[in-house]
Amino acid sequence: MRKINEIFYSLQGEGFHTGTPAVFVRFSGCNLKCSFCDTQHEEFRMMTDDEIIAEVCTYPCQMVILTGGEPGLSIDSQLTKALHAAGKYIAIETNGTCVLPEDIDWVTCSPKEGTTLKLHHIDEVKVVYVGQDVSPYLKLPAKHHFLQPCSGQNTNDVIAYIKEHPQWRLSLQTHKLIDIP
Q: Where does [4Fe-4S] cluster bind (predicted)?
């Protein structure tokens, strides 16, 4: 049984896969308490892997995004194998502090200051920028590095930073900007 905050179908609004239709499986619970997090961690329902797969398969897309909270606290290779068996492409949004199953297709790491990363593979780094030193994150072995304004409140600061540090790309929360449900 897994603590599921919600499962819903939408478009990815952030990072490399922006605009891609996806089923989001949002897990409840996190080992960090970030002030800008948009998940209500106290809300959840317990679901079996079969129930998760059944609900995910009611939607017409291939991409499934495991998010949270921190999905790394809840997932294992049993769930990822079941998702792959159902023909799904698995992406995860993680803070990177948990060891993940190795068969995840796309790993988005959103590292936080003062944490130790336990990932063996990262496809993209996506940092919510609030003025912190983000230069160490460029050393992470990822092909794509994104900076994202914090709830759209510091977009001009992020743009200015990226213009001075062109190794970064801008990620906007387009789902919030254009009110995608």
A: 30, 34, 37
Tokens of 3: 């603590």
Please, which pLDDT band fits residue 178 given cuts at 50, 70 and 90?
confident
Residue 180 has pLDDT above 80, yes or no: no
Q: Where are the domains of the chain?
A: 2-177
Task: Choose among 88, 55, 71, 65: nearest CA to 10.
Answer: 65
- The CATH class that applies to domain 2-177 reads alpha beta
Active site amino acids: 24, 30, 34, 37-39, 93, 175
Q: Is 10 marked as a binding-site residue?
A: no
Q: Tell how far CA 26 is from the center of its chain.
A: 9
Any idea which residue has 């499934």 for tokens?
Answer: 64
- Which runs of E-coded beta strand occur in the chain? 2-11, 21-27, 45-47, 63-67, 89-94, 106-109, 124-129, 144-149, 169-170
CA 127 – CA 112 distance, rounded (Å):
8
